[in-house]
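Lecture notes, continued. The same structure-token format from the folding unit now serves as the input rather than the output. Read the line below as a description of shape only.
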């Protein structure tokens, strides 16, 4: 039987440059793993929970030591254990106590940043429009006529050299992961979390930076924002593998510390985000200050793990940040959920996107902008409107509806075509930091004397009406369920399904509308009683609600398979590829050993 290091799940083999440390309780570990584990003040054996009387001593950090990781060996010190074995430990480059200001982040690789801005790579936003009907009779007026605005972010290689977004032609990221290591994460959960973090670390590039925050009874920063070079990745993996599950759950404290890393950083990569995972209820606070989250102006992505997490808190965190909430019902899906998220974060090609809509006729008024949970604005004269979208991933789409009031065509005007609105986008290129304005697209409508009686509504427009209706139904159903009125909550779902069943897109066999209906059925099945709703229904509903209102991919339920409509919705090619990569990596690994109570 092969001995295994419980800190990294790797085999304990003598030789090949692998030093092995045996503790006083007789359990053995890789030298690098235990050195990192002890460095953070741990005195408990991660295998048997025995309290060590003697721990390896590491000398204090050298104040003259350079900030940036490099391949130069760090100074070492010798320590003699109680069994008279001499073990060499590498000194940490970071002090065990945290600084008051987190401005010790690695300097950015400026050379890499500028060289990555390949002029053959073109980032753009494509605008497409659809009107509810192709024509409106000129002798009648119509209120709340629907116009669909479809946006899609493109990345194109003029020279067709790159088949995908590589490390050298995408915007580097500052990523902070905030991880729950409370007592409820012991066993398989903490092992799966470490594997998932290993996958994240492995897929970050040398220009990306990572910082990890862990929280249980209190929160602590494992390391500052480090460039994910070879040595940076090694340090990050050792720090993550040293984590031990114990104590209570301070979600708010963990998030505050993660936000502090972002706020205090001395240098800034173009893309920035926080990923937070928890499997429990906050032991110290039931509320979170959303103003502090929205002030960061970066997406926060939260992951609820298992049946005992707090979906309401995790959902409230993302509400003010343009992030997502994923409900990981099956423990084994944590890595796939992380993979889907970073597949998007590592393909950001548009930032600070705003859509502008301008009426082209003084008698055509913008009555409403329907954009889900995105912020909208209309001028007092209803002639100009805007939608604040934020970031877009490569190949990602956004749809929103513009409702206009169309007047009767005045007598003497014989033009059969009416100009309704003009649409364009303003955004920032993450590489050049330059502001970009797209060409305006005009939306026109035929205004003939007579129209065909069998004229049908646009399926594209109707599909988005269904999506927004489902998002609203989920919100209203949730409100009823939280009041304890599950009967009304299910009735709201039933009513939405009935209305949607009679729409043009459902009659046309539209796949997306059909999948919306299947999701509503799934939500209703998780409301059959209070116990089911609180254990799985609430998380599933909230994850779907944020997904459809923002058109962002989230993991929910017990599958992220490509055949699962719940998780596939809004998933980009790059997300799908990253999930497939995650599955391939998991196939080569043994299942985690739940007997390792770390």
């Amino acid at each position: 039987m092969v001995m295994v290091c419980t800190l990294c799940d790797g085999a304990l083999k003598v030789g090949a440059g692998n030093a092995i440390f045996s503790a006083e309780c007789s359990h053995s570990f890789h030298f690098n793993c235990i050195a990192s584990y002890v460095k953070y003040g741990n005195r408990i054996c991660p295998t048997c929970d025995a309290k060590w009387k003697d721990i390896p001593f590491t000398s204090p950090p050298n104040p003259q030591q350079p900030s940036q990781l490099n391949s130069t060996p760090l100074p070492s010190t010798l320590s003699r254990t109680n069994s008279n074995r001499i073990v060499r430990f590498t000194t940490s480059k970071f002090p065990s106590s945290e600084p008051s200001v987190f401005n010790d982040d690695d300097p950015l690789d400026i050379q890499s940043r500028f060289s990555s801005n390949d002029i053959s790579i073109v980032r753009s936003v494509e605008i497409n429009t659809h009107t509810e009907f192709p024509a409106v009779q000129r002798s009648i007026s119509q209120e709340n006529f629907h116009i669909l605005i479809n946006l899609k972010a493109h990345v194109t290689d003029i020279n067709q050299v790159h088949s995908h977004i590589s490390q050298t032609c995408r915007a580097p990221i500052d990523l902070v992961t905030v991880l729950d290591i409370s007592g409820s994460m012991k066993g398989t959960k903490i092992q799966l979390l470490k594997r998932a973090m290993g996958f994240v670390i492995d897929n970050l590039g040398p220009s990306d930076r990572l910082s990890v925050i862990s929280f249980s009874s209190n929160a602590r920063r494992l390391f500052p924002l480090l460039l994910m070079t070879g040595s940076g990745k090694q340090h990050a993996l050792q720090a993550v593998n040293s984590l031990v599950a114990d104590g209570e759950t301070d979600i708010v404290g963990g998030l505050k510390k993660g936000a502090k890393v972002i706020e205090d950083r001395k240098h800034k990569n173009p893309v920035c985000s926080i990923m937070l995972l928890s499997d429990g209820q906050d032991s110290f606070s039931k509320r979170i200050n959303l103003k502090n989250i929205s002030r960061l102006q970066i997406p926060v992505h939260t992951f609820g793990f298992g049946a005992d997490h707090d979906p309401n808190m995790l959902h409230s965190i993302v509400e003010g940040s343009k992030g997502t909430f994923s409900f990981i019902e099956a423990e084994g899906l944590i890595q796939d959920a992380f993979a889907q998220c970073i597949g998007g974060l590592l393909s950001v090609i548009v930032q600070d996107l705003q859509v502008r809509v301008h009426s082209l006729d003084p008698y055509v008024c913008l009555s409403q902008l329907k954009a889900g949970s995105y912020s909208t604005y209309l001028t007092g004269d209803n002639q100009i409107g805007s939608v604040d979208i934020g970031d877009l991933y490569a190949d990602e789409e956004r749809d929103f509806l513009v409702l206009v009031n169309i007047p009767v065509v005045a007598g003497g005007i014989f033009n059969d075509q009416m100009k309704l609105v003009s649409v364009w986008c303003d955004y920032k290129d993450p590489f050049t930091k330059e502001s970009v304005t797209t060409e305006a697209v005009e939306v026109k409508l035929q205004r003939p004397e007579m129209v065909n009686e069998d004229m049908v509504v646009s399926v594209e427009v109707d599909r988005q009406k269904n999506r927004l209706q489902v998002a609203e139904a989920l919100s209203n159903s949730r409100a009823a369920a939280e009041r304890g009125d599950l009967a009304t909550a299910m009735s709201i779902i039933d009513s939405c399904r009935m209305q949607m069943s009679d729409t043009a897109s459902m009659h046309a066999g539209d796949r997306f509308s059909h999948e919306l209906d299947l999701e509503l059925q799934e939500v209703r099945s998780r409301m059959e009683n209070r116990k089911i709703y609180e254990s799985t229904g609430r998380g599933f509903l909230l994850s779907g609600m944020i997904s459809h209102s923002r058109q962002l991919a989230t993991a929910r339920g017990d599958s992220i398979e490509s055949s699962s409509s719940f998780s596939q919705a809004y998933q980009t090619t790059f997300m799908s590829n990253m999930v497939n990569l995650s599955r391939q990596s998991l196939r080569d690994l043994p299942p985690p050993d739940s007997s390792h109570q770390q």
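Point for the exam: The mean pLDDT is 84.
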